[in-house]
């Protein structure tokens, strides 16, 4: 959520930033109109309540002195009725104002390039060369089936489309990847967490999934609770409604959780394999930073995501998202994309974003520079480190052999009990 003072004092700048995302800036005018009426009504009701308190004392004196107070009492009845009218109107305005404010996206950083969609993202760097095969390479879904590493058909029978059973070495590889990623992030100073995977609506609101993206979530029937789409939600909300001391900042968290997404807007996309599932494992990084440190933290977090692929020796590239592709709550986002031979292209495996104070304002997450200073909003950052299923897909495709086996990268072998290859039983 944006600071209303910014909307009041720099309206044209906010309209320009919103328009860069392809949104009509008319919502800004609606908010400012509601804000003006809201402040006027608050001022009026405060004056009326002050007048009522003062006159109540006068009435008490008059009654004590046995003086006639009926005219003043009638005036106070009228004042009371007006206060009631204002409070009812304020409740309506506040609800409308809050709803509209919650639908304004974060302000885009000046470094973000303008563009209509992901075709206009800007490549920052590329690491590793795609492998040239001396045989016809398989897609990861065929490798999974041939080596009996996963079962999509039985998962569909039990849960529906876009679910998977990892089986045998496939389950071991998934677990190995998760443990490997967590160990790397631990070494980089992230505190490992195990978090809830069902949260209240207010937690989803704080991180920006609600109200705008409710259709992408799985809601618990008859409850205002949701399964998490990412542990960004639970990790960011760990310090919700708290003010941290100076020595508690920065905060660096990592966690592995299942993630649940309805993929409401992705019909027909990536229907095969591990790329777009309703439930998948992901290792997340979240940081709470002082505002002046958050941009350097964004660069460092991006390097930490890239480092996982560097250690696995899988080709990848990093792109800066343009105005038409950046997420609702982000001010600046890098995507790390991994090379997938089956697509003959790079596929997003991590998004690393600086949300500035957008989530912190919604979640009331603050810090104090010293015990006497005024609380300030922290900046929150999040990024995948990495999406485990997509990492498995990339590993299988890039490390496959002509005999149908898959070589296990050296850094993963200790997590696989020393196993060097995945082969059909």
Automatic annotation (TrEMBL):
Binding site for ATP: 261-263, 348-351
Catalytic activity: tRNA(Ser) + L-serine + ATP = L-seryl-tRNA(Ser) + AMP + diphosphate + H(+); tRNA(Sec) + L-serine + ATP = L-seryl-tRNA(Sec) + AMP + diphosphate + H(+)
Database matches in Pfam families: Seryl_tRNA_N, tRNA-synt_2b
Residues reported in the UniProt entry to bind L-serine: 230-232, 261, 284, 382, 384
Intracellular or extracellular location(s): Cytoplasm
Entry's EC annotation: 6.1.1.11
Pathway annotation: Aminoacyl-tRNA biosynthesis; selenocysteinyl-tRNA(Sec) biosynthesis; L-seryl-tRNA(Sec) from L-serine and tRNA(Sec): step 1/1
Alphabetized InterPro entries for the sequence: aa-tRNA-synt_IIb, aa-tRNA-synth_II, aa-tRNA-synth_II/BPL/LPL, Ser-tRNA-ligase_type_1, Ser-tRNA-synth_1_N, SerRS_1_N_sf, SerRS_core, tRNA-bd_arm
Highest taxon of the lineage: Bacteria
Ranges in coiled-coil conformation: 31-89
Annotated ranges, domain Aminoacyl-transfer RNA synthetases class-II family profile: 172-409
GO cellular component, one term: cytoplasm
Keyword terms, alphabetized: Aminoacyl-tRNA synthetase, ATP-binding, Coiled coil, Cytoplasm, Ligase, Nucleotide-binding, Protein biosynthesis
Signal peptide, first to last residue: none
Main location: cytoplasm
GO terms assigned for molecular function: ATP binding; catalytic activity, acting on a protein; serine-tRNA ligase activity; transferase activity
GO process terms (BP): selenocysteine biosynthetic process; seryl-tRNA aminoacylation
Family per record: Belongs to the class-II aminoacyl-tRNA synthetase family. Type-1 seryl-tRNA synthetase subfamily.
PANTHER family cross-referenced by the UniProt entry: SERINE--TRNA LIGASE, SERYL-TRNA SYNTHETASE
Protein function: Catalyzes the attachment of serine to tRNA(Ser). Is also able to aminoacylate tRNA(Sec) with serine, to form the misacylated tRNA L-seryl-tRNA(Sec), which will be further converted into selenocysteinyl-tRNA(Sec).
Domain notes: Consists of two distinct domains, a catalytic core and a N-terminal extension that is involved in tRNA binding.
Self-association state and partner proteins as the record states: Homodimer. The tRNA molecule binds across the dimer.
Protein name (Swiss-Prot/TrEMBL): Serine--tRNA ligase
Source species of the chain: Jeotgalicoccus halotolerans
């Amino acid at each position: 959520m944006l600071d209303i003072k910014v909307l009041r004092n720099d309206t044209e700048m906010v309209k320009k930033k919103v328009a860069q995302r392809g949104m009509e800036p008319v919502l800004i005018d609606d908010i400012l109109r509601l804000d003006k009426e809201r402040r006027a009504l608050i001022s009026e009701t405060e004056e009326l309540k002050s007048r009522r308190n003062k006159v109540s004392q006068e009435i008490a004196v008059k009654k004590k002195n046995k003086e006639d107070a009926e005219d003043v009492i009638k005036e106070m009845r009228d004042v009371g009725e007006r206060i009631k009218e204002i409070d009812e109107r304020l409740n309506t305005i506040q609800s409308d104002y809050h709803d509209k404010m919650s639908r304004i996206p974060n302000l885009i950083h000046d470094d973000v390039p303008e563009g209509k969609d992901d075709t206009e993202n800007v490549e920052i760097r590329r690491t590793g060369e795609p492998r040239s095969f001396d045989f016809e390479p398989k897609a990861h879904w065929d490798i999974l089936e041939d080596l009996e590493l996963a079962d999509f058909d039985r998962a569909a029978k039990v849960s529906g489309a876009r679910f998977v059973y990892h089986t045998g070495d496939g389950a071991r590889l998934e677990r190995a990847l998760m443990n490997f990623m967590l160990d790397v992030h631990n070494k980089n100073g992230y505190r490992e967490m195990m978090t809830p995977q069902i949260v209240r609506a207010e937690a989803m609101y704080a991180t920006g999934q609600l109200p705008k993206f409710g259709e992408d979530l799985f809601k618990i029937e008859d409850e205002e609770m949701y399964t998490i789409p990412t542990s960004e939600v639970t990790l960011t909300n760990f310090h919700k409604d708290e003010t941290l001391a100076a020595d508690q900042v920065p905060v660096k968290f990592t966690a592995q959780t299942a993630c649940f997404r309805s993929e409401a807007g992705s019909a027909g996309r990536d229907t095969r394999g591990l790329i777009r599932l309703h439930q998948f494992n992901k290792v997340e990084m979240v940081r709470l930073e002082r505002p002046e440190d958050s941009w350097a933290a964004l660069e460092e977090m991006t390097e930490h995501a890239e480092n996982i692929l560097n250690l696995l020796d899988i080709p990848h590239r990093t792109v800066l998202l343009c105005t038409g592709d950046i997420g609702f709550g982000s001010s600046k986002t890098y995507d790390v994309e991994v090379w997938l031979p089956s697509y003959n292209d790079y596929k997003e495996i991590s998004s690393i974003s600086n949300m500035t104070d957008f989530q912190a304002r919604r979640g009331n997450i603050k810090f104090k520079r010293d015990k006497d200073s005024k609380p300030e909003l922290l900046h929150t950052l999040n990024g995948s480190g990495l999406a485990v299923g997509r990492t498995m897909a990339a590993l299988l495709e890039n490390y496959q052999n002509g005999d149908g086996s898959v070589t296990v990268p050296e850094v993963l072998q200790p997590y696989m009990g020393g196993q060097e290859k995945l082969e059909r039983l």
